[in-house]
């Protein structure tokens, strides 16, 4: 068993700054530090991936400055640790904050068993970060109880999904996570008022208001798929983030909870059955009535992003089987909503622009002969 001060790392190159995590195994994960001088980000993955990432032009573009006056403050909230509180009213669609992650890694890193729970691997990863960057991680909350080490505890408590390709990752195990000094302070709600989105183009996490948020209100995001019933949501949050969600939806009286669960399951089933976007398959046929019921369910549950997804998928189904005019209207509404919750860098916005081109070609195509 390794002791914490048994150093297995080895500097492979200094520009780009790449360190092999474990000289005992060929193919062990590597740490890429960006920029090489006084790094404020470490990326953890196999050597060939970090070598390619080191060449991305985005690192030559400095991050845009933030507005002088932030629209929130970080504040201790009873029972929830630190959270983000709006200091003024924020309009739906407003960008609340954006920043690059300090730690980014493949969700399942290749790490030897004797360096995992004791934190040796993760301590080594953040070791060469600038002092400010390292402190910004070490100051975050650790929800994981001992004997789990505090550094992997902090990373597990605070990491959010990031994408290093434009399209959503097909398999969750192939996706990536990132830890953010500020955005990771956002607490969870099962009907969140803000959306966390990772902009692959700028390599920044972005936080946008999905609803109008009043001054004094907490700015919340989701950590999970919200189309699950309360029992499953709570089990997931307690297993992965060590807390019991007491949000307004989870506090719904027992008599009404069944309806809330049923609405979320209805939206989830519809999305799962009909979302064939980015696959070579056509979606199943679905009636306008069924699609409208899913929209009504999303509205009732306050699920803005799921509402946008039903509009997007529904517009594709209606383009193929239904009414082109309704499909065009739904695509326009979905695009407006996705710009609002994910910004102009959204892949969904790009998909909807493609759909608009298909729609206008179809609308101007000559009609078939009626015999
Ligand atoms: C990503 S951090 C959020 C920021 C954190 N509250 C802090 O103090 O830095 C996730 C942790 O915050 C706490 N948390 C987040 N949402 C919560 C909620 N709705 N109720 C209670 N605790 C919550 C849990 O301890 C969770 O593991």
UniProtKB/TrEMBL annotation:
- Domain SET stretches: 70-224
Provenance organism: Somion occarium
Instruction: Tell me what this protein is called.
Output: SET domain-containing protein
One matching Pfam family: SET
């Amino acid at each position: 068993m390794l002791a914490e001060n048994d150093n297995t790392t080895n500097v492979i190159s200094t520009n780009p700054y790449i360190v092999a995590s474990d000289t005992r195994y060929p193919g062990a994960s590597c740490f890429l530090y960006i920029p090489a001088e006084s790094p404020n980000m470490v990326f953890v993955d196999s050597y060939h991936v970090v070598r390619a990432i080191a060449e991305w032009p985005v690192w030559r573009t400095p991050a845009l400055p933030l507005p002088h006056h932030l629209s929130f403050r970080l504040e201790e909230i009873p029972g929830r640790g630190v959270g983000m509180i709006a200091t003024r009213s924020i309009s739906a669609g407003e960008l609340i904050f954006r920043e690059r992650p300090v730690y980014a890694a493949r969700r399942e890193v290749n790490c030897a068993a004797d360096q995992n729970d004791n934190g040796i691997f993760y301590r080594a990863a953040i070791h060469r970060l600038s002092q400010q960057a390292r402190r910004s991680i070490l100051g975050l909350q650790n929800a994981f109880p001992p004997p789990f080490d505090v550094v992997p505890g902090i990373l597990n408590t605070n990491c959010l999904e990031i994408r290093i390709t434009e399209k959503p990752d097909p398999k969750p195990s192939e996706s990536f996570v990132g830890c953010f000094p500020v955005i990771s302070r956002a607490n969870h709600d099962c009907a969140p008022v803000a959306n966390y989105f990772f902009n692959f183009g700028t390599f920044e996490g972005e936080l946008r208001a999905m609803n109008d948020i009043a001054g004094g209100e907490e700015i919340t995001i989701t950590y999970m798929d919200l189309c699950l019933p309360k029992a499953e949501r709570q089990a997931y949050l307690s297993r992965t983030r060590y807390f019991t969600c007491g949000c307004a939806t989870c506090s719904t009286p027992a008599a009404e909870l069944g309806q809330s669960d049923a609405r979320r399951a209805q939206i989830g089933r519809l999305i799962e059955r009909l979302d064939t976007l980015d696959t070579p398959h056509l979606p199943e046929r679905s009636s306008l009535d069924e699609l409208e019921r899913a929209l009504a369910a999303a509205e009732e549950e306050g699920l803005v992003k799921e509402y946008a997804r039903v509009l997007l998928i529904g517009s594709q189904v209606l383009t193929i089987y239904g009414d082109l005019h309704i499909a065009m209207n739904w695509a326009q509404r979905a695009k407006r909503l996705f710009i609002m919750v994910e910004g102009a860098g959204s892949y969904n916005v790009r998909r909807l622009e493609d759909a608009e081109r298909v729609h206008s070609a179809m609308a101007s195509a000559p009609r078939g002969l009626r015999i």
